[in-house]
Structures are given as structure tokens and as C-alpha cells.
Amino acid sequence: MSTKPLPNSEQNTYMADLKLTALLINTSLQKCVKSVLLIAVALSATLSLDAAEHIVTPDTDLKPVLKQVKSGDSVVLQNGTWIDADLTFDELPGTSKAPIHIRAQTPGKVILTGATQFRFSGSYITVSGLLVRDPTGVSDVIQFRTHSERHAQHCRVTDCSIEESPDSHEKKESRWISIYGTNNRVDHCYTAGKKNRGTTLVVWVTEQPGNHRIDHNHFGPRPKLGSNGGETLRIGTSDVSEFDSKTTVENNYFHACDGEAEIVSNKSCDNVYRHNTFDSCSGALTLRHGHRCVVDGNVFFGRKQSGTGGVRIIGESHTVTNNYFEGLRGDSERAALCLMNGVPNSPLHEYAPVRNAKVAHNTFIDCKVSVEIGVGVGKKQSAVPDKCEFAHNVFVPGKWELFRVHADPTGLSWVDNRLQPRTRKDTPFREFRETKLSMQRTDDGLLRPSGSDSFKAALASMVSQDIDGFPRQSSVICGCDDPTTKHKTLANASNTGPSWRKQTP
Fold first, then answer.
1. Is residue 199 over pLDDT 70?
2. Which one of 87, 313, 420, 441 has the minimum C-beta count within 10 Å?
3. CB–CB of 32/40 below 8 Å?
4. Which value, to the nearest 10 degrees, does the dihedral of the CA atoms of residues 447, 223, 241, 409 take?
């Protein structure tokens, strides 16, 4: 079927009608957008007009004040030193669009000390700008709850600092930050100097996944405690270790956290530890209980200091990928990578057997022992690591031992790993390709590949990103770093912790 073209006069009229229609539609759309924007501005103005600021002092009775607090309000703590204060903010009614803010009048100028306790519950609450100095006589300094049944949900503690001075003598066991509830966050905070027993930051785990986030914090020096209970971070306890916490710990800087062998003590399932820096810490990130955790893209700088360790694996289906280990001088449970022997049918408080661990695309450089397998073997701990895989890792051990094997694992597979040639040899069951690896020191302190050729692998990899969090190229590159990607800035003293606190890199 054919159609005849319109005469020129009719065609001109038709095109003019189209332009007019388009103009009318465009004008209507502009009016609609303008109306929406005006409504949004009006609503914002209404909210800001309705929001109130409640100033409180150390002498203020909080209860009548808090009865007046509505969503969108701020509670402002007056500058000064607050001694032995009981700061309880119960069931505050924040919302996602109008959160409640509890803040210091000036960040860092509200100093909480002595037996001061800070507790809050409710929804969508942000706490910021507080400095806690030399807390004493309390079991928990900051709690995301006000009662065993009143917890915090979608709340945040940020830009705060808790510090203990060298001349303090606190003896009572305490925790500095206790996270309860769900969907909470602790970020850009600083902790340092804790000498007494008790974990610095604890996530309490229940049957409901917490989905918490712990990020951009500076965990400063913690001296050796000399016993258990000196962890910097713990997620869960042995009795709830089969529950899913789904907590993410990322972009934090751990420096000289020497409290005990477990810098981080994982005691729950499905947690993620990524892009953290462990600098000169005498201990290890320990997957003590629980299963299916991910340890990805972390940096472990030992600085050749005694007892500095990497990752210890206990339990099932953990994934350790894209991590960088250098200059670590720990062994046994503090080796760069440790796979423990387990207890058959282990009760919750013992050592669950290591099964189905995936160790891929990690880089080990100048570590006293790169990998220890079967640590703790004995009559009780008789279950050897089973069905674990080492794939596309890079080992540059120098003069040190590559492996110590205390109990031969079962079903262990080796896939396309790389080993810098050396004179020292290890036991024969390990399969490595010795390759002269070309590496150079970059501005961030890491030894990275100076080219791809010596790191290229023949077999496929399921790890899609590298240590910097960028997609790997199509050809598989062994080790944590793909030299074709950009470099992510490592977590360090200057880009973590409170904005108001002067950091020393």
C-alpha cells in the first residue's frame, strides 16, 4: 500500500501543529516539575521550622526534656566536662526522613568522664562529637539500648572518641561500645589506650541478623592485657555463633592493637571484613566461631614486629581473598594464614573443623610463616582441614618458611599459585609454579606487580575484583593486585576517625 506525500502547504501546517504540541507538552512538564520542587521546598521549610533544639547541661533533668523531643529535633550537650553522668535517651522517635540528632555543642568539647554512661534506644538517632576520657566504674560506656527489650534500630554513633590516658588505673571489666538492635552504624570514631579486660567494641548477636556497619574508624593502640578479653572488636559469642549477624567491617585502621591474640574475634555467621588496614598489630583477625565469612581486600603490615599476624580460620565455608600480608613475624595461631585443626562434632565453645575454605588471590611477602595447617592437632582436636582450596595466590617468602604442616589436610586443592624462586624447599605435596615475579613499591607502601606477564595464570578464577575493589581484566592475574586497575587509598590514620581530632599518620 502506497501513500501520497502531503502538499507543501498542508505539510507546513502539519509540522507547525507538531511544534506547537511539543511546546505545550514541554511547558506543562516544566510547570509540573516546578510545582513538585516548590512542594518539596515547602515541606523542607516546614520540617525545619518544626524541628527544635534542646540544650542540656550536666545539671539538666533529662526526662522532662526528652518528653518534648520529636522526630527531626536535636539534643545538644553543652560544652564542658561531664562527670559520672547518667545519659539515658529512651525510645526516641526518629524517622528516616527526620532523624533525631544527639550532639556535642562543639565536637570534641563535650568531655564525658568517670562513671558516665551513655545509652540510647529508638529509631533513626545519630550521636556525634563526644569525647569520652578515662571511663571508670561502668560495664558499658556507650550502649545501643536502654533496656534488655529496648534496643536501637537504624541508629548511628559517629565522630566520637574514647580514650584512656597512660596514668589511668581502671580495673573493672568493661566494654566501650556495645551494639544491639539492627541496622546500626559506628563510623569515624577513635579508640585508644584501653588497658582493662573487656572488648573495645562488641556486636551482640541474636536470631535476627543485625546488618550493622562498622566503618572508617581508627582503632588506636591497645596494650597487651596478658589474658583473654583484650579483643579490639568482637561480633557475637560462642553460644550464638551459629546465628547470622551479617555485619560489615570495612575501611577501618587498626594500629598497634596488641590486647591479645585475637584483634578481631568473629563469633557469628555471614560477616564481611574488607578494605581494613592492620598496622603493627600483635595478633590476628580470627574467625573463631561461625561460618561463611568473607575476608577480602585487607592489608596486614607487620613492620617485622614480634607476634604480628594475619587471618586465622576455624569453621566452614570461609572465603579469604585479595589480602596483602607483609613483614608479619607471628607463627602458629598468628601466622599470616592459619588453618586450625578442629574437634569432631564440636560443641559451640570448642573448635569447629575447617571445611571448604577458599583462599584465593592473596599476596604473602616476607612473612615468618606464610601458611600453617593443622595448628592445635591432638587427640581432642583431631579433625584436619578438609576440602579447602588455594588458588592464584602469590608467595614471596624470602628466607622464611613457606608452610608448616602439623596435620596433613584432606581434599586440599592447589590451583595456579605463584612462588618466587628460592633455595629453601618445603615438603613435596604442595604444588607451585616458581616464577621470577616483577614487583615494585608504590606510594601506598605495597609491593605491587610492575607488569602482568609474570603473574598471568592459565586457569580461570571466580574472583572478579582485586584488592582495590575494581574489576579484574579478562586474563587472570595471580595475587591480590591487578596492575591494570586504579589504586584505592588504604585506610590510614588521616582518613579514619573523628573529623575534629588531629590525626598523626
1. yes
2. 441
3. no
4. 50
